[in-house]
Amino acid sequence: MSSIVWLDIKHYSATSTARSHRNAANRAKLKMLHHIGSKPIREIIYQKGGKDGNPPDLATIFFETRKKNNTLVDFETIEKHAQIRELVMSEPSLPSIEIVEKCFGPQTRSHIFGYGGGVKAKDLKGGASSKAELISELRSTREENKSLKDRVSTLESEMKDLKKLVLAQHSNVQPPTSTVSGE
Q: What confidence tens digit (pLDDT) does each residue in 103-146 have?
């Protein structure tokens, strides 16, 4: 029995062939290849402390994504890693996006060098917090909210007791008689 294979003609169109050639040319232009295969950079970040809310610095990410047999192999990669480490050590409070821009120039809107696609400059610039920071902030806000609710219920209970006391005192004491002069 013969089998017939149907191909989607759109898949092999001129535009997809052109895209394939363009992507091959772009890959050939890369100077510092990463050696992590298909593992996403975010997975490396997660494994190196991101899961605990303590993501690694850019130098660690750069090394981990470009090492081969636990060493950097390309001279240009070694130089860039040294430059990144020097910046991280000299200015530890410098945000990652600024280190990336000092070492690799301005970044595009949807791709940050060393972080892969999908990470945007605004995500790293401090305008947006990391997921771990947001979770921590949410947890502390919930604790504060619970504490305030407990305090409000305590105050309500105290107010009820105070009202009972005032009503008890008021019912036992006769109101003072007022004398109006001039009547």
A: 878 776 666 776 666 666 666 666 556 677 778 888 889 999 99
The two counts, helices (H) then strands (E), for the chain are: 7, 4
Token digits for 84? 């990144």
Q: Is 72 helix (H, G, I), strand (E, B) or coil?
A: strand
SS3 6: coil
Q: Is the distance from CB of 45 to CB of 55 less than 8 angstroms?
A: yes
Burial 84-112 (b: 16+ CB within 10 A, else e): bbebbeeeeeeebbebbbebeeebeeeeb
Angle at the Cα of 146 from the Cα atoms of 145 and 152, rounded to 5 degrees: 90
- 124 close to 45: Cβ distance less than 8 angstroms: no
Residue position matching structure tokens 């105050």: 155
- Cβ-based burial of 131 (10 A; exposed 0-12, middle 13-18, buried ≥19): exposed
What's the token pair of residue 1?
Answer: 């029995």
Nearest to 62 by CA among 78, 86, 46: 78
Q: How many CB atoms neighbour CB 66 within 10 A?
A: 21
More confident residue, 49 or 5: 49
Q: Which helix (H) or strand (E) holds 66?
A: helix 58-66
pLDDT digit string, tens, across residues 4-32: 555 555 556 777 788 888 888 887 777 66
